[in-house]
């Protein structure tokens, strides 16, 4: 004889997404030229980097604060990294390299970070579908 099912209030696992959140839909941020945000002269490598990041699939996840804060910070760090006057006896400063890597991960600009964004995008239904579906009752 099978066991008697527990009452719903006594079940330990409810299979609900407790931390699920509905994100507000936002328009994709428009490309901004580096010279518009920071008029000082930049290294050619920094300009190439700035042009390359705008073709990234992660761009759809950015908002204005990411551009004005995160991407601009990375560009400034790239200028420091490629500055030939800052190269010491041991080569480039590894602290700057680590800082650039951390920013790139946070902005979804590394292969691993991009894979994480794509994986989470596949797991979640589109925003409009989540907003139109009725909320399950607790």
Number of helices: 6
The global form is: elongated
Q: Rg to the nearest angstrom?
A: 22 Å
* Distance between the amino and carboxyl termini: 31 Å
Q: How helix-rich are the residues, as a percent range?
A: 40-55%
Number of strands: 0
| Major beta sheet summary | none
Order of SSEs: HHHHHH
Q: How would you describe this structure to a colleague?
A:
- With 138 residues, the chain is mostly helical.
- The protein has a domain at 41-50 and 60-124.
- It contains 6 helices and no strands.
- α2 runs antiparallel to α3 and α3 packs antiparallel against α4.
- The longest helix has 19 residues, at 64-82.
- It is elongated and about 80 Å long.
- It starts with 33 loop residues before the first helix and ends in a 6-residue tail after the last helix.
How would you concisely characterize the structure shown here?
With 138 residues, this protein is mainly alpha-helical. It has helices at 34-37, 44-53, 64-82, 94-106, 111-123, 127-132. It has a domain at 41-50 and 60-124.
State the main characteristics.
single chain; mainly alpha; 47% helix; 6 helices; 138 residues
């Amino acid at each position: 004889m099978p066991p008697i099912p527990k009452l719903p209030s006594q079940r330990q696992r409810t299979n609900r997404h407790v931390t699920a959140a509905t994100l507000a839909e936002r328009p994709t941020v428009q490309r901004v030229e580096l010279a518009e945000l920071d008029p000082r002269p930049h290294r050619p490598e920094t300009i190439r980097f700035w042009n390359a990041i705008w073709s990234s699939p992660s761009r759809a996840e950015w908002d204005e604060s990411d551009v004005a804060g995160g991407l601009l910070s990375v560009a400034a760090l790239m200028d420091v990294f490629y500055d030939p006057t800052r190269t010491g006896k041991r080569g480039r400063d590894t602290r700057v390299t680590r800082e650039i890597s951390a920013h790139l991960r946070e902005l979804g600009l590394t292969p691993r970070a991009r894979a994480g964004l794509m994986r989470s995008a596949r797991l979640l239904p589109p925003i409009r579908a989540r907003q139109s579906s009725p909320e399950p009752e607790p």
